[in-house]
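Worked example

This section walks through a single chain of length 164. The input is the sequence exactly as stored; nothing has been trimmed or padded.
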Amino acid sequence: MNTQLLQRLICWAFVALSSALLAGCASTPDRPVTSVSVKDMVVQDAVVARDIDSYGGILAPMGVADSLPNEGKVYFFVTTNWSDTAMKGGPQDVKWEWYTGEKVVSTFTTTLNFANSPDICVGYRPARLLGVGQHRARLYIKDRASGEYVLVAEKTFAITDIRK
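Given that input, the structure is written out below as tokens.
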């Protein structure tokens, strides 16, 4: 191996090692990172909308209404916040329930990573699958202590026939 190639390899190894060490230092928090409990969360807003937009990575409801057409999707936006804004929301198990009248017609569970306070959680269903009539969307977040899902937001709305 020639000397110039060996010097370059050593230089690249030094750069890689330095970068890794600096990245490790930069990501070390001043205090342990903990996530909030559902009991610490407060619902700031809950709306249904017919569309969604993203402004600089922040989700925003478009066409907010209590009565939506039976085409496209119905989005359920829930904005939560918590008092200790230095804390991350962290991973939270969430569940959406969609009702037609009093009957649950759809349930979806997943884990979402809540970032900073406030944070937005969005679920959706195709309007045509819900059908014309009175509906309700609910959002639950699991309480880690009890293992039970806690109802945090609920919104009633109607879907109307656009042909009328």
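What to look for: The mean pLDDT is 80.
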